[in-house]
Design brief:
The complex is a heterodimer of chains A (410) and B (406). Chain A is of the alpha/beta class and 410 residues long. Chain A is 40% helix and 14% strand. The longest helix of chain A is centred in the middle third of the chain and has 21 residues, at 212-232. With 406 residues, chain B is of the alpha/beta class. In chain B, strand 2 (34-39), helix 2 and strand 3 (74-77) form a beta-alpha-beta unit. Classes of the chains: A alpha/beta (410), B alpha/beta (406). Strand 6 of chain A pairs antiparallel with strand 12 (362-364) of chain B, so a sheet runs across the interface.
């Protein structure tokens, strides 16, 4: 149970036993980070499976609970069991796992956890060393703690969209992915791992309460906006143009897609002008510094467009970078996936899955040379490790497991 | 409650600058580590000069946003252009567990702080580097700003109005994201050190860490060869409908509504008083609603625009529908939830003025996080040089006079 008791495995976090009692993105992704670096992560799913199993993407868009890309991505390296915690015997099994765990990661509504009798005080009473990482859109306390919420709700409650994404007068935009869930999950992993490593220091386990909305509202939006708001009542809204204080600083279309066009400092602007062939207009006084360029941004973007539309985004990026100008191509997912840089860094790993075949997956999120990590084994099939975990770890007999299956507890 | 914090006893030297690097130190600081950021008046970090300033007085020690983003990092001023300054920094590293830097690849080596040089003074040091695209590879020297870093991951290609071009997110989401993520990376390395006694040099490519956020879209590419495109506020894997942001009464007032189940759909249409939808067999399943998502969203937008956003959100929540106001920056300080959770707090800066920063956004039941205000330049010099390095007073004074400590 403690750090010192080693279970099998290698990696920085080997010896830690983690229970993933989450669904969707936030808690499973947090648990995957622990699994990536060697922790023994047991995923506990309801009998019908994690909701992500009924979410795409699927190969050929054909729904199948064992072929969800969303589920696969967040659950590699884990063992999977099924357990109906609303069933008394299922709950007993769950508590038995909690007794042997270092960490429980979950993303259920607080009211749901209480209804199951799985709130933190109950679990702490049977395992005082347990670190319980609860990741929800709004957190465990406060007036919205009982609200229903998806990633969309958490993100928009943070102020991020109204401030930073979309055109004025039009609707504020989401971030193209499960942005709040991911932000919350990495915060949960960092603070949660510290809680685990500091158990002896602080005198035991604890609940780590993560609100995805709050993490973004604080560390992304708050950091840059709250001081001015509190002191001067000053605040800003989205402009739709990228960076309004300097130019060029926005996403612009080119021949085969888009580029993030950035040239603020004098050297960068000079570099960009050189790459564009030093057009006559660029020497006009109004384009001398980034502030006056910003005042004339529309004009400048218009004047650049012929050149942009005549050139390929990777070529623009390469030439601008060589000229000291931090322009980047807006990679599509395919371009990111195929880029030689990521290939050269062995970012991708191949994993064999019984239903999906061989998959070329995103690998470790960061490189630890002395204790490498990343996905190695596929996401578990539903209930794949019931016998291994319940018999091997909890010592239940085959007959007991048959009984638990028959009454619907597992 | 404990009077100790989980990372007490861990000392961190932070060369991080601008935003991402300081957030790595801040995260460890919240959790009890002693974090000493190395900076210098000889080359003041650009974010110290960002307005607005405390009490309107422009000064590198008064940038409000900088204090919020750097809070929890101490500050030690050393001019690294001086050989003596670099030697002092190395002596501090010898007394520390972790070194953080977010320069481009090669800069630490040029300063004499490459991993091998650090190991020579501290065998088990954990060096954390977070360049844009990692420490090696064809894009090793790629130059980005935080707000454009996401373009290298594919993420930017997914953000925008449906069927429209990519729209830039107007600030560097990846900076605090990678900053907090980086703290996790450091803790994994520290745990490995605890098990094996071995330090290491973490190669944290911001591109690779942030690209994990496009995992779901990447899987679609892997399975179906599709590269995602902007889809407004629709669900990233097209699993929920309706799923959008709709106008409410007032200036720039919007409500976010996400329907995950058929039961939530029935609850929504009851409140909307749309019995025709309830009987429409084309709309009773998620698949059917996804096919008709455009018309459904138009009808919801026509309905929501007459309501006050908070009242409508509360009404929908009572019926079990996931609905929340889209908050503007102006709403954050007064929002009852953030007030109840103490998300934003007023602190006294070491120079004496009051300012509002964000507090611990993660709540720890046994060891509530440490809150320290943003650092004044050099506020920890006495501690670093007199207590940690035990410099004689006259030597300390000489180094200050000669602007090595500056």
């Amino acid at each position: 149970m403690n750090d010192s008791k080693q279970t099998q495995g290698t990696g920085a976090l080997a010896g830690l036993r983690i229970l993933d009692f989450g669904q969707g993105v936030s808690a499973p992704h947090c648990a995957r980070l622990f699994a990536d670096y060697g922790a023994d992560v047991i995923k506990i799913e309801p009998r019908h499976g994690d909701a992500a199993r009924s979410s795409g993407p699927y190969p050929g868009d054909q729904p199948h609970p064992e072929r969800s890309g969303l589920f696969f991505f967040h659950n590699t390296n884990k063992r999977g069991v099924t357990c109906d915690v609303s069933h008394p015997e299922g709950r007993a099994l769950f508590l038995d796992l909690v007794r042997r765990a270092d960490v429980l990661i979950e993303n259920n509504l607080p009211a749901q956890m209480r209804a199951w009798g799985l709130d933190y005080p109950t679990l702490a009473a049977i395992n005082p060393h347990l670190v319980m990482i609860s990741i929800t859109p709004f957190g465990q306390t406060g007036p919205y703690s009982e609200w229903h919420g998806q990633d969309l709700n958490a993100y928009h409650l943070s102020g991020a969209s109204a401030r930073y994404c979309g055109r004025p007068g039009e609707m504020p935009l989401e971030h193209g992915t499960f942005s709040a869930d991911y932000f919350g999950s990495v915060a949960a992993a960092a603070w949660g791992l510290a809680a685990v490593m500091g158990r002896e220091m602080v005198g035991g386990g604890q609940q780590v309460d993560v609100s995805c909305a709050e993490a973004i509202a604080a560390a992304f939006v708050g950091g840059q906006n709250i001081g001015g708001l509190a002191q001067d009542g000053r605040w800003d809204s989205r402009t739709g143009v990228g960076m309004p204080l300097g130019a060029p600083a926005t996403i612009l279309p080119c021949k085969n897609g888009h580029v993030w066009m950035l040239a603020l400092e004098p050297g960068q602007w000079k570099g960009l002008c050189k790459v564009m062939g030093d057009p006559e207009w660029a020497s006009l006084e109004m384009f001398n510094d980034m502030y006056t360029r910003a005042q004339n941004a529309d004009l400048i973007y218009g004047l650049m467009s012929d050149w942009l539309m005549a050139h390929d985004k990777m070529e623009i990026m390469e030439k601008c970078q060589a000229a000291g100008c931090p322009v980047t191509a807006v990679f599509t997912i395919e371009e990111a996936a195929r880029h030689r840089h990521l290939q050269a860094r062995h970012y991708f790993v191949d994993i064999e899955h019984p239903e999906l075949g061989r998959l070329h997956c995103l690998g470790a999120p960061f490189k630890l040379p002395a204790s490498p990590g990343g996905p190695r084994t596929p996401a578990p099939l539903l209930g794949e490790h019931n016998r291994e975990v319940f018999a091997g770890l909890l010592g239940r007999t085959a007959a007991e497991l048959d009984h638990l299956g028959a009454i619907g507890a597992i | 409650m404990s009077n100790k914090l989980p990372l007490q006893g861990i000392r961190v030297i932070n060369f991080g600058w601008v935003w991402a690097g300081p957030v790595v130190g801040q995260t460890l600081g919240f959790l009890g580590a002693e974090v000493l950021k190395i900076e210098s008046r000889a080359r003041v970090d650009m974010t110290r000069n960002l307005p607005p300033f405390a009490e309107g007085i422009a000064n590198p020690d008064r940038s409000l946003s900088n204090h919020a983003c750097w809070a929890g990092n101490g500050s030690v001023t050393i001019d690294l252009k001086h050989a003596e300054g670099r030697a002092l920094a190395l002596r501090l590293i010898a007394e520390s567990d972790v070194v953080i830097e977010n320069f481009g690849p090669g800069v630490m080596e040029r300063l004499g702080f490459g991993y091998e040089a650090l190991r020579a003074v501290r065998e088990d040091i954990v060096l954390f580097s977070m360049p844009a695209a990692g420490l090696y590879g064809p894009l090793e020297h790629v130059r980005t700003y935080g707000l454009s870093l996401t373009s290298l991951t594919g993420l930017d290609s997914l953000v925008g109005y449906k069927d429209g071009p990519p729209i830039p997110v107007e600030n560097a989401y990846s900076d605090p994201f990678a900053g907090i993520f980086g703290a996790f990376a450091i803790l994994t390395a520290l745990r490995n050190r605890r098990r094996t006694g071995q330090g290491q040099h973490i190669d944290f490519s911001q591109q690779e860490a942030v690209m994990q956020m496009v995992g779901p879209a990447y899987m679609d590419y892997l399975f179906n060869g599709r590269s995602g495109t902007p889809r407004g506020n629709e669900h990233p894997t097209a699993t929920m409908a309706p799923h959008g942001v709709f106008p409410c009464r007032g200036d720039d007032r919007w409500i976010a509504i996400a329907v995950a189940s058929d039961a939530e759909w029935m609850a929504l249409i009851e409140i909307m008083d749309r019995p025709d939808w309830a009987c429409d067999p084309a709309l009773v399943t998620t698949a059917g609603r996804l096919r008709a998502i455009g018309e459904i969203h138009d009808a919801i937008a026509a309905w929501t625009c007459d309501f006050e956003v908070r009242a409508l959100a509360e009404r929908l929540q009572r019926a079990g529908v996931a609905a929340t106001p889209v908050l503007r920056v102006a709403d954050l300080l007064d929002d009852p939830h953030y007030r109840a959770r103490g998300t934003f707090i007023e602190v006294t800066h070491p120079l004496g003025f009051r300012e509002t920063i964000y507090g611990p956004y993660v709540k720890m039941s046994r060891s509530p996080a440490a809150v320290r205000p943003g650092p004044a330049m050099g506020q920890d010099n006495d501690h670093a040089f007199l207590e940690i390095l035990k410099l004689p007073a006259d030597e300390y004074q000489r180094l200050k006079d000669s602007r090595v400590i500056y």
